Write a sequence for this structure.
């Protein structure tokens, strides 16, 4: 299914993202499961927007995703300032929770790949308690070497899941899905980063009001200051710079179009 010809997309800072709401994303996922067609869901946030400019593998993995969605309010706000507004933010973890609800209702088979084993085990227990209709196709921690990837992919392929959640950090999860998703033949693949930690209760997610104001990064920084401060400081500064440049170009382009239109109108009046 060619999604790009069926659904609207917006180009932001060199990335084509789909302008969709959550219910449409779920409809697309359910349709792919019903037809046993492959769907790779990719999400972009501020860090990915910045890092993919130098990381070719990360860029390639996002370009190969069937559905690229925006996980981050700053990118949604930028789309509005550029005159191509996205309808809403679609956080990777929110997509995961909505897919879990769908899996519970439809008794889908789900495979969980990622996190430490103890965290993953608690996440699986939470899923079994909260979504009893889900069939656990299998699970494996995310600590494996590159030469073990084939064994991991074979295990997933043999378990025949309807949905695969990959709870591994970037760019490892994107690269794994790019290399093995066709081999695994799973209808819906979704990289969810550190979402298993939240599902297991090992990490807290920011309250809704913090998410609403685009400060989820600050909440996470407060939880892991030593590990996250440099990443957020560097990526946020670069993103602000890229955004200001994009806004300036857009405004100059609008002024040029307006000036061209006024000149053309004046010529028409003189010719009359």
């Amino acid at each position: 299914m060619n999604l790009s010809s069926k659904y609207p997309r917006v180009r932001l800072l060199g990335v084509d993202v789909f302008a969709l709401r959550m219910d449409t994303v779920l409809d697309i996922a359910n349709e792919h499961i019903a037809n046993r067609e492959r769907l790779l869901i990719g999400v972009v946030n501020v860090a990915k927007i910045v890092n993919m400019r130098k990381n070719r593998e990360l860029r390639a993995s996002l370009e190969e995703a069937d559905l690229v969605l925006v996980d981050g309010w700053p990118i949604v706000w930028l789309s509005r300032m550029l005159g191509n507004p996205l309808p809403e933010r679609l956080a990777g973890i929110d997509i995961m929770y909505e897919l879990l609800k769908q899996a519970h209702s439809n008794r889908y088979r789900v495979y969980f790949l990622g996190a430490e084993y103890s965290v993953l085990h608690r996440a699986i227990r939470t899923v079994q308690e909260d979504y009893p209709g889900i069939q656990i196709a299998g699970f494996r921690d995310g600590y494996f070497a590159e030469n073990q990837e084939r064994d991991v992919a074979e295990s997933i392929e043999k378990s025949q899941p309807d949905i695969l959640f990959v709870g591994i950090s970037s760019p490892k999860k994107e690269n794994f899905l790019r290399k093995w998703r066709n081999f695994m033949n799973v209808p819906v693949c979704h990289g969810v980063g550190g979402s298993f930690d939240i599902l297991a209760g090992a990490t807290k997610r920011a309250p809704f009001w913090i998410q609403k104001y685009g400060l989820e990064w600050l909440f996470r920084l407060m939880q892991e200051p030593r590990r996250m401060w440099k990443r957020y400081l560097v990526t946020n500064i670069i993103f602000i710079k890229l955004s200001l440049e994009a806004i300036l170009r857009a405004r100059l382009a609008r002024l040029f179009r307006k000036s061209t239109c006024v000149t053309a109108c004046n010529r028409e009046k003189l010719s009359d």
